[in-house]
Amino acid sequence: MRRYIYLFVRSFVRSFVRSFVRSFVRSFVRSFVRSFVRSFVRSFVRSFVRSFVRSFVRSFDFKHFLTLLSSFSN
Questions:
Q1: 24-53 pLDDT, tens per residue?
Q2: In Å, how far from its chain's centre is CA 26?
Q3: What percent of the chain has pLDDT over 70?
Q4: Cα-flanking dihedrals φ and ψ of residue 64, to 5°?
Q5: How many domains does the chain have?
Q6: Stated pTM of the model
Q7: To the nearest whole number, what is the mean pLDDT of the chain?
Q8: Rounded Cα gap, residues 5 and 7, in angstroms
């Protein structure tokens, strides 16, 4: 009888530990992936915006813009 109780407790503890570890690992991986993706997207967007602004400022013709403004205002 004692052996059956021991086996039952052992299997119960094993399944409990397995499910606990699985849920813990799943939540950890999910939060890690979420933070990684968030930081990656943030850095990507930041670099993209920076390069876009830089290229826009380089290609921007200020004199042309002023002449357009003056033509609109007239």
A1: 999 999 999 999 999 999 999 999 999 988
A2: 16
A3: 99
A4: -60, -40
A5: 1
A6: 0.44
A7: 88
A8: 5
Burial (CB < 10 A; 0-12, 13-18, 19+), residue 30, is exposed
Does residue 73 surpass a pLDDT of 80?
no
The first and second tokens of residue 16, run together, are: 């409990």
CA distance 29 to 50: 31
Separation CA 47–CA 59 (nearest Å): 18
Domain that holds residue 37: 2-73
One-letter amino acid of 56: F
